[in-house]
Amino acid sequence: MRIAEISSSPSPSTQHQQDSQLLLSQIESSIKHLEQFSSTLNNTNTNTNTISSNLRQSLTQLSQLGPFSSEFNLHLWKLSYRLWNSCVDLSNLNPKLRSSSSSSSSAALSLDLAKLRHIAADILSLAGNVSGVPSPSIKSASFYYKTGLIWHDLRRFDLASSCFEKATDLLSNSNAAAAISADDATKLLLDVNLARSRTAWELSDRNLAVALLSRSKTLLLCPDHYGSLANQYLALGLRRFGEAEKELRGMVVNTGIPEGVWLSAVESYFDAAGGSAGAETAKGLFLGLMGRCHVSTGAAVRVAHRVVGDGVESEGSKVRAKVVAELVSDDRVVALFAGEAVAKERMAMHAVLWNCAADFFRSKDYGTSAEMFEKSMLYIPYDIESKILRAKGFRVLCLCHLGLSQLDRALEYINEAEKLEPNIACAFLKFKIYLQRNDHDGAISQIQAMTTCLDFTTDFISLSAHEAVACRALPVAVAALSNLLNFYTPGKSMPTTEIVVLRTLVTILSQQPGNELEVVKFIKCAHNQASELGSDIFFGKGEIGRRERNWFAVTSWNLGTRTGKEGNYELCAEFFRLASEIYCVPVDGQAEENNVMVCKSLILTVSSMIASEKQRKAALSESEVNEAVKLLDKAGKILKSISTGTRLNDDQITTLEPDLFFIYTFSAYDIKGRLSDLASQQLLVKSFASSKACNSKHLLQIGLTASQAPQSNHEVATFALNECLSSLLSSPSPDFQNVALILRKLIAVASIHKGDTDDDAVYGMYKQAYQIMVGLKEGEYPTEEGKWLAMTAWNRAALPVRLGQIEMAKKWMNIGMELAKRIPGMETYKACMEDFVDCFQKKCNVQNNGENRPQLVE
After folding, report:
1. What DSSP state is assigned to residue 587?
2. Residue 307 contacts residue 324 (beta carbons within 8 Å)
3. Could you tell me the pLDDT band of residue 281, with boundaries at 50, 70 and 90?
4. What sections of 584-713 are H helices per DSSP?
5. pTM of the full predicted structure?
6. Which pLDDT score, from 0 to 100, does residue 589 have?
7. 741 and 719 Cβ atoms separated by less than 8 Å
8. Is the separation of the CB atoms in 332 and 287 below 8 Å?
9. Which of 374, 424, 423 is nearest to 397 (CA)?
10. What is the mean pLDDT of residues 477-482?
11. In the predicted model, what is the mean pLDDT of residues 446-472?
12. DSSP strand E in 744-832: where?
């Protein structure tokens, strides 16, 4: 071989270095490319999968060319960290990338990053020991451990297991911990063992998982280590509670284990076991620990807090609360918290128990809540400074027993609270107890007691009313609201407006009969307040004010209607009077829209006053009559402005009922009669008769009333009855029963007031009756009324016969006979009449003195 040929080929050593440098350059180039990608989100063309493939290929080739120089290894070390840091940056960017890409691409990126981390760990492992770098094996093991955790999260358990195994090998090196703290190396080895155990469990290698946990027992140096091991035993499916409990009980008798380590292990056990079993074990172990050494108050608070848990909704919360109650009530535990030196810890324990009790109270588990509140009282000193806190405890215990309907116990607790701190809260709770006992008198007395408390506010009276309404204790609610009214003064801020209180009172009282007098009182109060303060202030302005005013007016109207139907006319008049007054109250300066209701209320007020007079059989006083006159005058003025038909008002058609117009006329006739104003009576009736509201029934009633004492007015009676008769006879089918009644009354009125001075008027009535009967079917005109007409007409001839007034006698006898001919069943009477007429005629011819005169008696 020539020298030139030999010199052109590199030696094996030189070739080895060149290949190594080339591969190193390729690795560095790929890492630079990845670093560029991690520096921006816009470069989405970079394929991390390609980079990882290139890196893995270059690393595989490089690993076959070792060993390397220290300088080369240092370069590998740096490249490993650069690659790892780029992966960290990309991991931090991955959530942002996820928002701008699909979930599948994000998952692919996560997988690529795990591969890249694995390559970084392999590069560091390939670099090996580098001079100047402390504990390189530890750092390499750390890379493998962290990468294994990522593979585990991605559920690539085979790759995770491989990483953990490499980390274990690196840490098992006897020289691994030479340059760092032995504790740090032990902690890392413990973490690796626990991670390997988790992965082995996922790979269904239970024996390896348990073996790794057992191996980890030799690595426990601090409380955190115990907690980590306990979590592995109890939390990724082993749940070997018996074994864990055995270990814990062994720790109790081992005086060499610090309190903090033992406590941490207990907490880990309880977190995993939970429920009643975990709670009972934790309590037993803690009390066992107290028996062998001094236990700090802080440890007791910590255990109680951990066993109680974070909420009452979690599984077994009630059981855990019971265990804690037994734990904190143990005499040895209570003794731990005695003295001022542990005041802070004592308050902490009180807070734990109080908060737990409050949670159960909010969830309405009053039994458990009461037990926890009772136990919290054990951690309140019996000194002056703590009496307010003790009083608070007694008050909440009262609430718990109220919730359990244990009213005697509740009263005992609130009495104790009142001894320590008498205040409005105690008074109110006693009120609730009396209320639930249906002791209405006691509850009402307690309302008054509240007002004497130094911290009294009217809110409690308002709240008492709400409680009473909820319990259907209406007398108590009325007492509370009535009491509340005493605190209203102009300008004073109150929990609710006065109008609302009055409205509520009226509503409550109206629900039961017999409270009408009280209702009248409060409705009057509302009207008086509106008058004194101004309707806009009391009722409110605008639509709200109108609604409030109309509510009181309508309520008064409805109650007037109800009491009227019940026959309580005195109260009926009072309610209608109030309705008329409230309807007249202006809101925003307007009240005219209620004129129709005002008119109705006024009319019914006077009508009720008259009915009440008859009911109580005592005449209206002069002042009552004068008041009725004023009310009717006001109603009359409104009637003049309202037609008896229809009237447009606020886009509604309001009708004044015809019957109401009649009631007005009838009532006004009655009152005018008391004043002997006969002319006004006649004017009223004539005005009514000319209205569309008038009908024959109305006229008949007026006529009958006017025809008899003490309200007789013969002119009104004659007018009304004649008008009624005309109305009836104009009907296609007249009511002849009423026709006959009217004729009888007209004859009676005429007879009384006309007498002998106007005999023709009375005769005209009989003649009209005869004319009405002509053409009627038999029996169509009431027979008895017909007989009465015939006989009274015949008998009216008696006096003229006696006085020798022959022509007048003949006139009456003839009309009597004519009427008798129209009445069935009077044949015998008619024959007698005819015989008497013949006889009378003969005697008249011989100028008889009239000793024999006709006498027909029914």
Report:
1. B
2. yes
3. low
4. 595-616, 622-641, 658-674, 678-689, 696-706
5. 0.64
6. 76
7. no
8. yes
9. 374
10. 95
11. 93
12. none
SS3 for 546?
helix
* List of residues 6+ apart from 354 with CB closer than 8 A: 372, 373, 376
Q: Is 474 helix (H, G, I), strand (E, B) or coil?
A: helix
Long-range CB contact pairs, 773-781, < 8 A, 24+: 773/819, 773/822, 774/822, 776/736, 776/822, 778/824, 779/824, 780/736, 781/736, 781/739, 781/740, 781/822, 781/823
* SS3 letters across 290-331: HHHCCCCHHHHHHHHHHHHCCCCCCCCHHHHHHHHHHHHCCH
CA 652, CA 704: separation in Å to the nearest integer?
A: 38
* Cα 262 to the center of its chain, rounded Å: 51
In angstroms and rounded to an integer, the radius of gyration of the C-alpha atoms of the chain is: 56
DSSP 235: -
In the predicted structure, residue 294 carries a pLDDT above the cut 70: no
- CB under 8 Å to 368, separation ≥6 — which residues? 318, 321, 322, 357, 360
pLDDT confidence band for 384 (50 / 70 / 90): confident
Q: Which of helix, strand or coil describes residue 817? A: helix
Name residue 762's amino acid.
Answer: V
pLDDT at 56 over 60: yes
Instruction: Give per-residue pLDDT as tens, 545-560.
Output: 999 999 999 999 999 9
Residue 293, token pair as written in the block: 């050494």
What's the mean pLDDT in 399-408? 95
Q: How far apart are CA 260 and CA 283, in angstroms?
A: 16
- Arithmetic mean of pLDDT, 844-852: 57
648: three-class secondary structure by DSSP: strand
What pLDDT, on a 0 to 100 scale, did the predictor assign at position 521? 95
CB-based contact 600:660 (threshold 8 Å): yes
The more confidently predicted of residues 298 and 370 is 370
Torsion of CA 179, 184, 188, 193, to 10 degrees: 110
Rounded Cα distance between 181 and 134, Å, is 11
Widest Cα–Cα separation across the chain: 208
Q: What is the pLDDT of residue 246?
A: 58
